From TrEMBL:
The protein's name in its UniProt record: NAD(P)-dependent alcohol dehydrogenase
All copies of domain Enoyl reductase (ER), residue ranges: 9-329
Lineage of source species: Bacteria, Pseudomonadati, Verrucomicrobiota, Verrucomicrobiia, Verrucomicrobiales
Molecular function (Gene Ontology), one example: oxidoreductase activity
Listed CDD domains: MDR7
Pfam families: ADH_N, ADH_zinc_N
InterPro entries: ADH-like_C (IPR013149), ADH-like_N (IPR013154), ER (IPR020843), GroES-like_sf (IPR011032), NAD(P)-bd_dom_sf (IPR036291), Zinc_ADH-like (IPR052711)
Length: 334
C-alpha cells in the first residue's frame, strides 16, 4: 500500500510503499477516503523524533474486519478517533501518550489504516468523507471547548472566537446553532464578512484594532464575554483574560502565537476565572458531538481539497493562513 512518512528534519513528507499490517481479531481495515490537516500536524512535523505516518484525522470505508469485530462490517463509513484509547471519562497520561500522527503512533495519511474497532466511529449520515475527516480533531475540540467542561456555554452567552481556522469556524457554527452570541477576531475583512454571513454577532479586525480586548469590553457593555475560545496561546492569552467577564471561562486550546511569553496570572485570581485546557476529547464526547451535528444539520466548512499525490501542498496552503475552515487531502482512490 501507499502511505506518507514524516521524517525528522525532512523538508517534506515522503510517499512510500509499505506492507499492510496483519489484521487482528478485533481490528478493522479502512480504506482512506479523506484526511484533514490541523495545526498540530505542523508541530509534529517540526518536532518529530522518528519516522511516522502523519495526519491525526481521516475518514474512509471499512474493507475488512477481524473475526471478533462486532461494531462494524464491510462497507461502513467510519472516521478514526484522535485518541484511539480515550473512550470516556478523564484523560490520563496513558491516553495522552497514544494519539494518531504523533509520537510513535501512525496517523491517517495512508492508503489503508488498521486499528482496533474501538478506535473508530461511524460517520454522520449527512456528511461526505471530506467533511467527516474534519471531525476528530478540529470539530471535537470546538465542541469540547464550548460544551464538555465543568462550565459549558448556554443559550444567550457571548463567546469570543479567535481566527477562522478549523476549530474556530466549528466553534462559530456550534455557537450559532445553540443560540450563543459571538465576537470573531480576524485580520482579514473578507473572512470577517464571511463569518457575518454565517451568523456571527460582532467581528473585529485585530490588525486595525490591536487593542481588541478594549473593543470586546465595549461591545459587551463593559461586562466581558462569558467564554473565550483561546487558540492563540501565549501571545493572546493576556488580552483574553481582559476580554472575559468576572467568573468567566477561557477554553485554552492552541499555541498559534507561540509558547514563550510572560503571562501575569493575577487576573485569573482577581476575576475568579476558570481556565480549562482542551485537548480534543473522548469517544463519548465524539458521539455527543455527532448527535448535535445531526440534530442541527451542521456541515463542516472545507476550504480546499488536495489530491493524495499532492498532500505536501496542503501544509503549504494551511501555513499561508489563507484558508477558511478546514484543509483536506483526498484518499488515494477516492
Amino acid at each position: 500500500m501507499k502511505q506518507y512518512i514524516m521524517e525528522p528534519g525532512a523538508d517534506a513528507i515522503r510517499l512510500v510503499d509499505a506492507e499492510v499490517p496483519k489484521l487482528g481479531p478485533k481490528d478493522v481495515k479502512v480504506q482512506l477516503k479523506a484526511a484533514s490537516l490541523n495545526y498540530r500536524d505542523f508541530l509534529m512535523r517540526q518536532y518529530a523524533k522518528e519516522a511516522i505516518v502523519p495526519f491525526s484525522d481521516g475518514a474512509g470505508v471499512v474493507v475488512e474486519v477481524g473475526a471478533e469485530v462486532q461494531d462494524f462490517q464491510v462497507g461502513d463509513r467510519v472516521l478514526g478517533l484522535f485518541f484511539p484509547n480515550w473512550i470516556d471519562g478523564e484523560i490520563t497520561r496513558e491516553i495522552h501518550g497514544v494519539a494518531r500522527g504523533g509520537g510513535s503512533v501512525d496517523g491517517m495519511l495512508s492508503e489503508f489504516v488498521l486499528g482496533h474497532e474501538q478506535s473508530f466511529v461511524a460517520v454522520p449520515e449527512h456528511l461526505d468523507f471530506a467533511e467527516a475527516a474534519t471531525l476528530p480533531c478540529a470539530g471535537l475540540t470546538a465542541w469540547h471547548a464550548l460544551f464538555e467542561h465543568a462550565r459549558p456555554a448556554k443559550k444567550g452567552d457571548t463567546i469570543l472566537i479567535q481566527g477562522t481556522g478549523g476549530v474556530s469556524i466549528f466553534a462559530l457554527q456550534l455557537a450559532v446553532a445553540f443560540g450563543l452570541k459571538t465576537i470573531v477576531l480576524s485580520s482579514s475583512d473578507e473572512k470577517l464578512a464571511r463569518v457575518k454571513e454565517m451568523g456571527a454577532t460582532h467581528t473585529i479586525n485585530y490588525r486595525d484594532t490591536p487593542d481588541w480586548d478594549q473593543e470586546v469590553w465595549e461591545l459587551t457593555g463593559k461586562r466581558g464575554v462569558d467564554l473565550v475560545v483561546e487558540v492563540g496561546g501565549a501571545g493572546t492569552f493576556e488580552r483574553s483574560m481582559k476580554s472575559v467577564k468576572y467568573h468567566g471561562v477561557i477554553s485554552l486550546i492552541g499555541v498559534l502565537t507561540g509558547t514563550a511569553a510572560e503571562v501575569n496570572p493575577f487576573m485569573i485570581v482577581g476575576k475568579s476565572l476558570q481556565v480549562f485546557g482542551i485537548y480534543v476529547g473522548s469517544k463519548a464526547m465524539q458521539h455527543r458531538f455527532h448527535a448535535a451535528l445531526e440534530e442541527h444539520s451542521l456541515t463542516p466548512v472545507v476550504d480546499s481539497v488536495f489530491e493524495f499525490e499532492d498532500a505536501d501542498s496542503a501544509y503549504v496552503h494551511q501555513k499561508s493562513g489563507k484558508h477558511f475552515g478546514n484543509v483536506v487531502v483526498r484518499g488515494m482512490d477516492a
